[in-house]
């Protein structure tokens, strides 16, 4: 399989495909301005590091063990076609099925600035159609360089309208969760998922002193992760998204999860997810499409 992928989509000196120990296929990107890896299962971006940064920007748990049919801990999981629990079917997987099923490569290329572009399409199956009986396709394009751009497009090819929830559930590498703050969401309403689901309003910057699980709504704002320990800022600019999810499990929940990079991997990550969730789910009319775009940029300070 990798031979055919490398022949059709490989780019000498930039993009190649390999099979890992679990048998999953991984795309490796390494160009003049950045490097990244992406698992074809789930179209799951696992890592990204601009060449200007000494430390990766996207976090991947050192304890993650890629397995067919299981989500990878870290990176940028694709949540689609719903976010969180399914509205009516408790047995369906949380955050949808897109992150655990095969995707196929449909295009690759080089941008004028030297960045590497790779596009994948979700492969529908009898199993996915049971959970999502609608005529839709979903493509994910990643553009890797000094910045990272991700574009997820849902194309409703059917004759009925559909409603989707979605997110790029990105984990960011930080120095220490107790020494970061997130700006850009001041004054925004959010659903606080810790200890119940309560609607609150953000006062000032977001800082962390315990488990945090918040869905900020009705905001297209750019967010900035200020990292005092690593002395850098990570910018998260988004388009086609009105929800932002901010999450850290903290120690007790991380220990129960078992794959967060024991004993303290949870301290070195924070999720700032660009999403459409709860009241911001998206209605896609028949014959139309919706695109969620996120661009990440890191700068030293």
Structural features, described:
This protein has about 300 residues and is mostly beta strands. The chain has one domain: Distorted Sandwich (Beta-galactosidase, Chain A, domain 5). Helix content is about 5%, strand content about 45%. It has three helices and 23 strands. It has helices at about 1-10, 125-130, 250-255; strands spanning about 15-20, 25-30, 35-40, 45-50, 80, 105-110, 115-120, 135-145, 150-155, 160-165, 165-170, 170-175, 180-185, 190, 200, 205, 210-215, 225, 230-240, 245-250, 270-275, 280-285, 290-300. The strands form four sheets. Strands 6-7-8-9-23-19-18-13-16 form a nine-stranded antiparallel β-sheet, with no helix packed on it. Strands 5, 11, 12, 14, 15, 17, 20 and 21 form an eight-stranded antiparallel β-sheet that branches. A four-stranded antiparallel β-sheet has the order 1-2-3-4. The mean pLDDT is about 95.
